[in-house]
Design goal:
Order of helices and strands: HHHEHEHEHEEEHEEEEEHHHEEEHEHE
Bound molecules: pyridoxal-5'-phosphate
Oligomer: single chain
Low-confidence stretches: none
């Protein structure tokens, strides 16, 4: 298929001659109203009603006991890892196919990643690959701690990522975690509005992280959230992301080392307004995904559809080209013509910091990296649902 036919199709869908970005934020609700009101109130920072409102919205929406708003998704992941008991010199299973934030959080928690392959069905962590790595390279010590044979380091957690909002095989991964005393933490940064067997993503792990960065499905400018299954975990997460200050009329007393990772009220106000548009965003994205899917049926370029157990938010639409050359050719030509297409992230195991990390066979990750292209996926007002 010729690049021009695809770029023409994308231009027709978005009905514009301007540059079409990969994913732009869209403000078509009460954003102006709530942000202006916050400015007028002067409560733009660490105090104000919108942070709590935003957290309550997500507790209700996802069904977790406690949601804690943070400055960004990376800090949400870092705190999740630390509260799950990950510390210096520990190991954490994750994917080589992910955005760098996942690994930055592991490093910030003092640990190192072990990279597991993904499957072609979900683009996320492959349970067989995880199982096989544990079987061949790890052992449970007599205290029940999983350790890497080669170094005897403790492996504490599994941090899978739901790529582009498509759910991984959570039941299978959960079972492996239980059998091996591993904490499950979901990187659900891309997954607001995605469901696995009817349950919102980020509700199966003990902790999970969401992101509200500018390129995500809804945004607070920058921001994140820790979803906690357990109320006590949630209270602790709130405490250590807000300087661990004990409540008092006027005194400053902090009872442990902690962070200033709280989301400012100004950002939360934007988030509350964005949340009101979420259903509309999700509907629009499904229509866009169907539009792409139908178009690509006859092209020889393969559209990636949600796994059959999933209801995905289709945060970013993705296609597979037949080989690396046709992928590169398409990326070059489409970007030259003002269409924001992107490859998937360079695999973590190809970055200087992680090239010598422990890893499983990564053939699926490599296969995907060679062929995948993300297509413009912003809210598209001229599509009818
Ligand atoms: C966006 C994102 C994050 C968090 O990013 P922040 O910019 O820190 O909010 C983490 N993991 C993945 C996979 C992401 O896409």
């Amino acid at each position: 298929m010729k690049t021009e036919a695809i770029t023409k199709f994308i231009r027709d869908v978005y009905d514009t001659d301007e540059v079409i970005p990969l994913h732009a934020p869209s403000f078509h609700g009460r954003e102006d109203e709530l942000v202006s009101e916050t400015l007028e109130s002067t409560f733009v920072s660490s105090v104000g009603k919108y942070v709590e409102q935003f957290e309550s919205m997500f507790e209700e929406y996802t069904g977790v006991s406690k949601a804690v708003a943070t400055v960004n998704g990376t800090s949400a992941l870092q705190v999740s890892l630390e509260l799950a008991g990950v510390s210096n010199n520990d190991l954490v299973f994750t994917q080589s196919l992910t955005f760098i934030a996942t690994c930055n959080a592991i490093s910030q928690a003092g640990a190192s990643p072990i990279f597991i392959d993904v499957n072609l069905n979900s683009l996320g962590m492959c349970p067989h690959s995880l199982e096989e790595f544990i079987h061949n390279k790890a052992y449970l010590d007599n205290e029940g701690i999983l350790r890497l044979q080669e170094t005897d380091q403790a492996i504490k957690a599994v941090l899978p990522m739901h790529t582009f909002g498509h759910p991984i095989q959570l039941d299978e991964i959960s079972k492996i975690c239980k059998r091996n005393n591993l904490e499950l933490i979901e990187d659900a940064a891309e997954s607001v509005g995605s469901y696995y067997k009817g349950k919102h993503l980020g509700t199966q792990g003990r902790f999970s992280a969401l992101s509200f960065n500018g390129n995500k499905i809804i945004t607070t400018g920058g921001g994140g959230m820790i979803l906690c299954k357990d109320k006590d975990d949630g209270n602790l997460a709130k405490h250590i992301t807000t300087t661990a200050k004990l409540k008092h009329k006027y005194e400053f007393f902090h009872d442990q080392n902690a962070y200033n990772y709280r989301m400012p009220n100004l950002n939360a106000a934007l988030g509350c307004a964005q949340f009101e548009n979420l259903d509309q965003m999700l509907k629009n994205k499904r229509v866009l995904a169907e539009t792409y899917e139908n178009f690509f049926k006859t092209t020889g370029v393969q559209f990636f559809s949600e796994p059959d157990y999933a209801l995905s938010n289709y945060w970013l639409n993705a296609v597979f080209f037949s080989d690396k050359d046709s992928k590169i050719n398409f990326l070059e030509e489409s970007n030259d013509s003002g269409i924001g297409t992107r490859p998937i992230w360079t695999l973590m195991t190809e970055l200087p910091m992680y090239k010598d990390s422990f890893q499983s066979d990564l053939s699926n990750s490599l296969w995907i990296e060679e062929r995948l292209v993300c297509l413009p996926s912003s809210y598209c007002p001229n599509l009818k649902d």
